[in-house]
Design brief:
It is a single chain. This protein has about 270 residues and is α/β, with parallel strands linked by helices. The chain has 2 domains: about 170 residues, 3-Layer(aba) Sandwich (Rossmann fold), CATH 3.40.50.1820; about 90 residues, no CATH class. The protein has a 6-stranded mixed β-sheet with strand order 1-2-4-3-7-8, covered by helices on one side. Helix 5 packs across helix 6 and helix 5 crosses helix 7. The relative contact order is 0.13.
Length: about 270
């Protein structure tokens, strides 16, 4: 049972305080230890970044009806010596709009700094880790993959290895394709604030339609890529006109500055 090796640490972030979209500066940090963990050994740390709406601990859910959970798989693979014995860390990236993309934002808070300046020292002090960049891997899928790429490029001194799966990138394809749907839903609701009131008034927002999910996610991306602290309640500028769905170039350029496809050539060894 992997649960016997699972620890849930609580961390009070100083960096995430006083930002409008930080739902709680007190963060739960799941850590999966290797079988037969010993303070006499030093273990690499694998930082696994969750996708949009993921909390970190959602990756540690119980086994499903037809298969193992991630925690059970990792524990079994270590027990069978199919992978090295490591410490797995699952930070919580959530905001009131669902996710932070693991980057620094004037409305979501400095989530990238939170990881490298607060959580890495905290984990290294709490467990017997290989406490330098060559002993750390950052990895993730979707928004987690995006975060892994961005942290590796913008904070190169903290992780020696990066694994990114289906990372948000090539924004003309991965982001802009959803703008017509988001514009239509926001227009139908009567504006951005009206859409948010409608969405969060639902008895089960997590059971929303695909169109509503895409619209909320688009607004969440706006709080990461084009935040606007002056827009109380909306907290961002969207990169398209609600009526016509034409791109607003200056805002869209802000988004493109965060596109890994445009950043990677400037951050290669």
């Amino acid at each position: 049972m992997f649960q016997e090796n699972l620890r849930f640490l609580r961390f009070e972030s100083q960096l995430l305080k006083s930002f409008p979209l930080v739902n709680d500066s007190r963060r739960l940090l799941p850590v999966l230890l290797p079988p037969n963990y010993s303070d006499r050994e030093r273990y690499p740390t694998i930082w696994m970044l969750d996708g949009y709406l993921g909390t970190g601990r959602s990756l540690m859910s119980e086994s499903g009806f037809l298969g193992e959970s991630l925690g059970a798989q990792l524990t079994r693979l270590m027990q069978e010596d199919l992978i090295p014995h490591c410490i797995f860390v699952f930070p919580d990236p959530t905001t009131r709009f669902g996710g932070s993309q693991f980057i620094d934002s004037s409305v979501c808070g400095p989530f990238m700094r939170h990881i490298v300046e607060e959580l890495i020292p905290f984990v290294d002090a709490s467990f017997s880790t290989v406490a330098h960049k060559d002993g750390r891997v950052v990895c993730g899928h979707s928004s987690g993959g995006y975060g892994a790429l961005m942290i590796s490029m913008l904070k190169p001194g903290f992780f020696g290895y990066c694994i990114a799966s289906a990372a948000d990138s090539a924004f003309e394809l991965s982001m802009a394709n959803g703008f017509p749907t988001a514009a239509a839903r926001i227009k139908k609701c009567g504006g951005e604030e009206a859409f948010l009131r409608y969405f969060f008034a639902q008895p089960r927002p997590e059971k929303c339609s695909k169109e509503d999910f895409l619209t909320l996610m688009t607004m969440a991306m706006g709080t990461c890529y084009s935040p606007d602290p002056a827009r109380n309640g909306v907290w961002c500028q969207l990169p398209f006109d609600i009526e016509s769905c034409t791109l607003i170039d200056d805002v869209w350029q802000q988004w493109l500055k965060h596109d890994p496809c445009r950043l990677v050539t400037r951050h290669t060894d």
